[in-house]
Predict the structure of Cytochrome c domain-containing protein.
Amino acid sequence: MRGHGGPVRALAISADGQSAISGSFDSTAIRWSLTRNAAEQVLRFHSDAVNAVALIGDKRAATAGADGRIAIWTFGKTEPDAVFEGHTAPIVALAVSPDGATLASASWDRSVRLWPLAGGAPRVLDEHTQNVNGVAFTPDGRALVSVSYDLSVRIWPLSGAQPPTVVAMPTPLNAVAVGTDGEIAVGGADGNVYFLTASGARAGEVAAGPRPVISIAISPDGAHVAAAGIGGTVAVIDRKTRALARTLVGPGLPVWSVAFSPDSRTLLTGGADNIIRRWNAATGESVDPILMETAGDPLAAYAGDRGAEIFRACVACHTLGADQANRAGPTLAGIFGRRIATAPGYNFSEALKQLDIVWTPETVSKLFEVGPQAYTPGTKMPEQRIGSEQDRAALVQFLERATRQ
């Protein structure tokens, strides 16, 4: 399904499987008919990327974005019914409680907020020490699970004043889902999916791929986990055997969002090429011919270049040439010798503007050695690191060639 003018960052499917909602870097959300493969309504409110969406019953939805605001919509209306404000950084995930009474939001301001949908002040959970990237309710509604760049999973009891259960993890975490049996699945920046029991005990791990997992979903029947990666593939994992069942391969660009249909037979993915694709979850085959359409490859001229292949994970957000526009991130044209947060025409955060960094081969290499959150705190850039010194050198050499003005 086509309609967005930017990467599809978030997806949610209705309980009857008839409709879906998507959020995009283009700052809009779209409500779709899955029976007609057509857009039914474009929701315009946010001033920045729409990073998260959630359906509230049959006729309402929530959208949240990099502008730090949450909008509550009734389908068919052109303006939100309510706007929740309080986060001071991008909101990147939403979840609705099983009883439909509470909306949870995860933000890069290091907090989780619990918003009563009937109105009232939110409850703030602020013990994470880095960006919070994912949030999910347990199926009984008694607890909330959050994951963060701070290498932890936190399981928050929602009644009383009990502190959360904190589970230390070996990698920054980008996404979380909870199965109907209470098992927790989290997606790591190391490309692994980690499984935890409802109480937080480690229960296995599966390598989904070599690149960070950035979205995760558990099928309603509980049989599979879909882990979407920044490398452009979706790993479908058998939960019972903890084995990779199949890999969905699209056009090679990052897959930002993934969602199962209620019958667990179909999988929707949202990609960096602005398209929502539909897959047969059992076979891994594309459902519609459009699924395998590919846009022109922006790196075709660099075939065989190791640095270009490493950069492929970055093309969703960054262009290279002086004649190309900013995307979710600034163009990299002429980056070397330029001070951070000075690329023309891009709205940088105040935190980045205060940093004393000039982009050189050494500083770009350092960015990927320690990670964006440590080297450039306040960035909107997804967390990813390149552990190999040789790969970092190849990336820098590629950028030196490709970004000359």
